[in-house]
UniProtKB/TrEMBL annotation:
Domain Gfo/Idh/MocA-like oxidoreductase C-terminal: start-end pairs: 161-373
Domain Gfo/Idh/MocA-like oxidoreductase N-terminal: 10-145
Protein's name according to its UniProt entry: Gfo/Idh/MocA-like oxidoreductase N-terminal domain-containing protein
Organism: Eragrostis curvula (weeping love grass)
GO molecular-function term, one example from the UniProt record: nucleotide binding
């Protein structure tokens, strides 16, 4: 793969400067300061694109507060791509815009590396179109923003599982008990048609982790969920939000292991937002976020043999909204760019596709009250 940029400098453009776009701006500012000192590479945010003037204004205001040079602003992503001002593009626009933007970036005459926020797209077909288009562009890399992999306690648990300490993984249980969806520009995240549905928009993170822990391919999904508490008294343009606020999801894998998600988005009274349990045939491991605690032990050692450790990562220079994982995501993305094709992105397009596909299967299972096979969701 040829490189799309000189290794000594990487110029970033951000498409979508809402809450997550500005979070990326924070992370890039901290990354720039660190890598210029440690790796002699210059990271610069040169441009911002967003059709909403208020978002652009907030982006410029933040850039000034962070002491960054003033980025060029554009009302659309195509104008930004044509400007030639960036080598890498962060796509942090609303979910339903990802497909069009990604296809435009991939199809542009100038190569641009891409870090796209989760979900990759809101539908399986759109994800597959992006995957196929990217195959025709070996000169760019595309990384998907499934950054929960990098949260220190989660990363430590991944290492424990991969080391074989727990034996053959049989069960993965992930609980996310948290606050409701935040308010976004034009309230786009209140409707399934825009977000892909809660199990796609939010839970693709956890389906990605299940695949990592199980080290297997998902084959069947069963889910039960509903809108029981949140957003029921909200109305936008005469429409009431249709995003579920709680669900149980079971995922079966082709090696016989199973994953289970317990989601509740009206559980602010929780000590931890995410609790992950992985059980193998000889041991069990757990991770807790944001406590950043990891516990693991073997069946032979019983309760007294359980080890408890605090997980951290000294590479993190900015905690941000996701406990430092977005910073590590950017560190990995930059490393992949600088490797000039020697190594691919740490989270690739197939990871993005499958995380969406499991979510789509879960949404369909809730609607139809049945198991849904991955074959029927993914097609041929």
């Amino acid at each position: 793969m040829a490189t799309a940029t000189a290794a000594a400098e990487v110029r970033y453009g951000i498409v979508g400067v809402g809450m997550m776009g500005r979070e990326h701006l924070h992370n890039l500012a901290h990354l720039a300061a660190e890598v210029e000192r440690e790796q002699s590479v210059q990271v610069r945010v040169t441009c911002l694109a967003d059709p909403h003037p208020e978002s652009l204004h907030l982006g410029l205001q933040l850039a000034a507060e962070l002491g960054l040079p003033v980025p060029q602003t554009f009302s659309g992503h195509r104008e930004m791509l044509d400007s030639g001002l960036c080598d890498a593009v962060i796509v942090s626009s609303p979910n339903m815009t990802h497909h069009e933007i990604l296809m435009d970036i991939i199809g542009h005459s100038k190569p641009h590396h891409i870090l796209v926020e989760k979900p990759l797209c809101t539908t399986v077909n759109h994800c597959k179109e992006v995957v196929e288009a990217a195959k025709q562009r070996p000169d760019i890399l595309v990384q998907v923003g499934l950054e929960y992999r990098y949260m220190p306690p989660v990363a430590k648990l991944i290492d424990i599982v991969k080391s074989g300490t727990l034996g053959q993984v049989r069960m993965v249980a992930i609980r996310e008990h948290r606050f409701p969806f935040l308010v976004k520009v034009n309230n786009w995240n209140r409707f399934n048609c825009n977000s892909g549905g809660t199990l796609v928009e939010k839970c693709c993170h956890f389906f990605d982790l299940m695949r990592l822990f199980a080290a297997a391919h998902p084959v069947r999904v069963m889910a039960s969920g509903a809108i029981d508490v949140n957003h029921k008294d909200e109305v936008y343009d005469g429409k009431v939000p249709d995003i579920i606020d709680n669900a149980y999801v079971i995922v079966e894998f082709d090696n016989g292991s199973r994953g289970m998600l317990d989601l509740c988005m009206f559980a602010e009274g929780s000590k931890n937002e995410q609790e992950i349990s992985v059980v193998g045939d000889i041991g069990k491991g757990e991770a807790f976020v944001p406590e950043s605690v990891v516990r693991f032990g073997k069946r032979t050692g019983g309760r007294d043999g359980v080890v408890t450790i605090m997980a951290d990562d000294e590479r993190i220079k900015y905690q941000g909204l996701h406990h430092g994982s977005s910073y590590l995501e950017h560190l990995n993305f930059l490393s992949a760019i600088r490797a000039q094709g020697v190594s691919g992105p740490s989270v690739n397009l197939n990871d993005g596709l499958l995380s969406v596909a499991i979510g789509v299967a879960g949404q369909l299972s809730i609607e139809q009250g049945r198991f849904v096979t991955m074959e029927e969701v993914l097609g041929s």
